[in-house]
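Standup notes
- DV: blocked on the single-chain target, sequence here:
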Amino acid sequence: MKFDKKKMILSDIADFNPRESIPKGQLAKKIGMDKLQPFCRDISAYEEEMFSGGTKFRNKDTIMARITPCLENGKTAMVNVLNDEEVGFGSTEYIVFRAKEGISDPYYIYYLVCSPFVRESAIKSMVGSSGRQRVQVDVIQKLEVFVPPLGEQRRIGNILKIIDDKIAINTAINDNLAA
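- DV (later): unblocked, structure below
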């Protein structure tokens, strides 16, 4: 299938670390780095804790580790454990990507962020002392990507979502059989 695509910078199609609010001391869902499984879209678990700081996000946001070795290990996920309009929080070592309404599809953004093109660019941009290197967010924001029209993004995202959904079902079946 042929479609028109435009070259855009990533910050034109995704908001980075969008502003959200959780009052200090409020009980909220926390997604720690340990809850992200390598190369797995879905989040395995969360904890409820009093908010005292951290990166904030909503359902359908993509969270990507920005610190070594977590990024290299594939710690990127799509937030899916919150209630409607709920804001959760997690590590300050996350970069949050949010699809822009009417411009990009949340699943397309997730799979784009997981792609070798974005991941390898993020890894190459890391700076800092050995063992504590972090992604330079501004480098990723300025990353040029080819972007298909929104309808095509939705089709691409949906196809990949269906595959991930099937993998999750098969994993659950295998876990059940093993038990």
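- Follow-up: The chain has five helices and ten strands.
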